[in-house]
Amino acid sequence: MRAVASIKKRIRCDEDGVITTETELKLWDKPAALRMAGQHFKMFTDQTEIRVTVTHEDALKELA
Fold first, then answer.
1. pLDDT tens-digit profile of 2-22?
2. Scanning 23, 33, 40, 61, which has its CA 20 to 30 A from the CA of 53?
3. Are 40 and 24 contacting, i.e. CB atoms less than 8 angstroms apart?
4. What is the dihedral of CA 13, 14, 18, 19, to 10 degrees?
5. What's the alpha-carbon Rg for the chain, to the nearest Å?
């Protein structure tokens, strides 16, 4: 039932006395929810992040 967003139930009675029941289930959009959760926790990154740490000694050796 966690996947169900809404339920619509229609009961119709014909002139002949026939009762027809129509049930419509609308489900939550699971892929969109998972995509938003992944973006929130930075699981799916569009950019690559590169961190470089350089000490002063390494920088001076490069300049020399």
1. 889 999 999 999 988 899 999
2. 40
3. no
4. -20
5. 29
DSSP conformational letter for 36: H
Please state, in angstroms and rounded to a whole number, the distance separating the CA atoms of residues 47 and 55: 26
- d(CA 58, CA 37) in angstroms, rounded, equals 40
Spatial separation of the C-alpha atoms in residues 16 and 30, rounded to whole Å: 42
C-alpha distance across the termini of the chain, in Å: 69
pTM of the predicted model, to two decimals?
0.44
Q: Phi and psi at residue 40, in whole multiples of 5°?
A: -65, -40
Helix, strand counts (H, E) of the chain? 2, 2
pLDDT at 27: 93
